[in-house]
User: What shape does this take?
Amino acid sequence: MASTSRRALFAAALAPLEAATEYASPNEVFAAIDGLEADVESRLRALAAALPSARAFAQSLLRDHARHRGGRASLRQRLKLPVASVSTAATADDVSLEALRVAVEALVYAHAEGLPAVGDAFAVDQLAHDMVDLSRHLTLVQLWIEQEQNRG
Amino acid sequence: MAEPRRDFVLRIAKAAGVAAPALAVIEGTAAALPKSDAVDLEVLYAALTLEHHAIALYDEGLKRSLFPPGLRNYAVEFRGDHMGHRDTQIAIAEERGGHPPGPQAHYDLGTLPTADRLIREALLIEVAAQEAYTALISRIRTKDYLLSAAFILVDEVRHMTVWQRVLGVKIY
Assistant: This one.
């Protein structure tokens, strides 16, 4: 699968910052990540319920999310940000892999586009590590979709 | 015995020509580099040397038709990504008055007689690139470069994950 246009824009061009979602503060970044993470988790749970063979995959990703959430809680303390409000997402109706891919991609992008607004090297480092995990998740979902397409 | 992960990342980075200050960050021995334009340039140059190395490897594999037909599309895609990363970072460095390094005249790519060997070598370079960007990203001062580096890192993880999957490495 080719690079998506938004990713390619920033990685392979001198992209103006105006083209990205511009977060105004670390708190805004964390809030966006919390909400998008909840959306992905809702889709993972729905997928695991609909497809038992996807359960181990979903649980592995959810464990990564839980670890990331714990790390962000520590970062909130470090940056003296308010405690996260509990993010809940409606139960996902669309259990397709494509809907999951779109949701994971949005979470990856929130990390990438949020880094310039965080303003703390330690927090940037931690969120970048989380983004590496999430990018791996995204690739696995993309490969799964390709595999399904090749099967016809 | 398998080479420790950090050792091979450093080996690849050294072979690619990454300079000492950035190597120290990757190695974890430069804990408190201040953020500055000079550090941004060091990061850029380190990243650029790895991009040149990756392009050389994919070029060689594609030229010699070593990638199996089902994987050739990935090699073409990844080479294109690395060329984009290279061009981005040259442009950023030049915009900051830097003199970005060009590719080496010759890369020691080892013997690549089989697709398996080539893909393992590609995986090593992608892991090195991913680890280098992850180690260096928090040292970047300017917002536009930080944003570009973040999206480049996303690409590097994709490349690494695809080759890990091809080689049957357990990922989750």
Summary: Chain A is about 70% helix and 0% strand.
